[in-house]
Design goal:
Distance between the termini: 22 Å
Strand order of the largest sheet: 2-1-3-12-11-4-5-10-8-9
Largest sheet: 10 strands, mixed
CATH topology of the largest domain: Isopropylmalate Dehydrogenase
Bound molecules: 1,4-dihydronicotinamide adenine dinucleotide, magnesium ion
Number of helices: 11
Structural class: alpha/beta
Shape: globular
CATH class of the largest domain: Alpha Beta
Oligomer: single chain
Radius of gyration: 19 Å
Order of helices and strands: EHEHHEHEEEEHEHEHEHEEHHH
CATH superfamily of the largest domain: Isopropylmalate Dehydrogenase
CATH architecture of the largest domain: 3-Layer(aba) Sandwich
Length: 331
C-alpha cells in the first residue's frame, strides 16, 4: 500500500483532484490517501497557507497529487507552488504535450515534452525595491541547477527513445546567466551522441511551436521560459484542461496539472479533470504501477475519441463528474 499526499487546492482544485483520486481508485491500485490542504482557502480556515501537517505529510510520503493553488497577483504571500518546489527541491518540471482525439487542438501531430527548471531562474524570489520608481528582480542560474535539468531531459529522451533535445534560451541578451545554462546543456549533450541536440532562442521558439510543433521533441529550458512555453504548447493540443505535469526531485514527486485554479469556472462543474487525471497517471508510473497508468491513459483516449462526454473547453456540455465517470467505467 502506497501512501500519497493529496492536496485538493483552491478554485477548481478540489473538483479535479478528487476526480483524479476517483479514477486512480477505480484502477484497483491500493493507495492510502493522506488528504491535507494548503492555499488561500486553508488560510481563511486555519491562518496558515501551508500547514505544518502538510509539510510533515509530504516529507513522509514523498509522493503527492496536487490540485492548483491560488496565488494573489502583485502583492500578498509568496506562491505556495514555488515554495513547495524550492522546499522539496523538485528541480524538474516535466510536462508532456500530446495531441489527443476529439479536442480543439489545432494540430493532430504534437508530441512534445517540456523540461522546465523548477527551482531557480527568475522564480528564485529575489526581488526588491530600489526606490518608489525602480524595482529589481534577480535571475539565478547555477551550474548545478542547469546540469541536473538537462540531464533529466536527456535521460528521459534516451529511456523513451526520443530523437532530439532542444535547449531554449535568451543567451544573446542574458549572456552570463543563459550563457551558463547553454554551456551546461552543451556539456550534457556531448554525453548523448545518439540524441540530436540543438539550441533555439526563446522568441523564435514561440513562433516555431505555433507554426511547426511537429518538428520538436524534448524541450529543456530555464524556469520562466518553461512556464510560458508550456501554456503556449497547451494551446496547441487543445487547452490547459488536458495537460499534465510532474515536479520531480531526487526522491520526491509532486504531480499536478499545468493549469491554475481557474476561478472563472470554479464550483460550476465545468472543469476538465483530464489534466489532473493524466497527472495521476504520471504518478502511477512513478510508483511503478505502469499497468494502471496505461489503463488510465487509454481510458482518457477512448472517452475523448468517442466524444460523448466532453466538458465545455472541449466543445461539449458534460460536467466534471460525467466525464470522470465515463473514464472510470472504461476497462
Ligand atoms: P488558469 O490556468 O487557472 O486558467 C487559465 C484559463 O484556462 C481560464 O480561462 C480557465 O478557465 C481555463 N482552464 C484552466 N484549467 C482548466 C480546466 N481544467 N478545465 C477547463 N478550463 C480550464 O490560469 P490563471 O487564471 O492565470 O490563474 C488562476 C490562479 O491559479 C492564479 O491564482 C494562479 O496563481 C494560480 N496558478 C496555480 C498553479 C498551480 O497551483 N500549479 C499554476 C498556474 C496558476
Ligand atoms: Mg504556469
Amino acid at each position: 500500500m502506497t501512501r500519497v499526499t493529496l492536496i485538493p487546492g483552491d478554485g477548481i482544485g478540489p473538483e479535479v483532484a478528487f476526480a483524479a483520486k476517483e479514477v486512480v481508485d477505480a484502477t484497483g491500485v491500493k493507495i492510502e490517501w493522506d488528504i491535507v490542504n494548503a492555499g488561500a482557502d486553508t488560510y481563511k480556515k486555519t491562518g496558515s497557507f501551508i500547514p505544518k501537517t502538510l509539510l510533515e505529510s509530504i516529507s513522509k510520503n514523498r509522493v503527492v497529487l496536487k490540485g492548483p493553488i491560488t496565488t494573489p497577483i502583485g502583492k500578498g504571500f509568496k506562491s505556495i507552488n514555488v515554495t513547495l518546489r524550492q522546499k522539496f527541491d523538485t528541480y524538474a518540471n516535466i510536462r508532456p504535450l500530446k495531441s489527443m482525439p476529439g479536442t480543439k487542438g489545432r494540430f493532430d501531430n504534437v508530441d512534445l515534452v517540456v523540461f522546465r527548471e523548477n527551482t531557480e531562474g527568475l522564480y528564485a524570489g529575489i526581488e526588491h525595491k530600489i526606490n518608489e520608481d525602480v524595482t529589481e528582480a534577480i535571475k539565478v542560474i547555477t551550474k548545478k541547477g542547469s546540469i541536473r535539468i538537462v540531464e533529466e531531459a536527456f535521460k528521459y529522451a534516451k529511456e523513451q527513445n526520443r530523437k532530439k533535445v532542444t535547449a531554449v534560451h535568451k543567451a544573446n541578451i542574458m549572456k552570463i546567466t543563459d550563457g551558463l545554462f547553454l554551456d551546461c546543456a552543451k556539456s550534457v549533450a556531448k554525453k548523448y551522441p545518439d540524441i540530436e541536440y540543438e539550441e533555439k532562442i526563446v522568441d523564435n521558439m514561440c513562433m516555431q511551436l505555433v507554426m511547426y510543433p511537429e518538428k520538436y521533441d524534448i524541450l529543456v529550458m530555464p524556469n520562466l521560459y518553461g512556464d510560458i512555453l508550456s501554456d503556449l504548447a497547451s494551446g496547441l493540443v487543445g487547452g490547459l484542461g488536458l495537460v499534465p505535469g510532474a515536479n520531480i526531485g531526487s526522491d520526491i514527486g509532486i504531480f499536478e496539472a499545468v493549469h491554475g485554479s481557474a476561478p472563472d469556472i470554479a464550483g460550476k462543474s465545468l472543469a476538465n479533470p483530464i489534466a489532473c487525471i493524466m497527472s495521476s497517471a504520471m504518478m502511477l508510473d512513478y510508483i511503478d504501477e505502469k499497468q494502471a497508468a496505461n489503463r488510465i491513459r487509454k481510458a482518457v483516449w477512448t472517452v475523448l475519441e468517442e466524444g460523448k462526454w466532453k466538458t465545455k473547453d472541449l466543445g461539449g456540455n458534460a460536467t466534471t463528474e460525467e466525464i470522470t465517470n465515463a473514464i472510470c467505467k472504461k476497462p
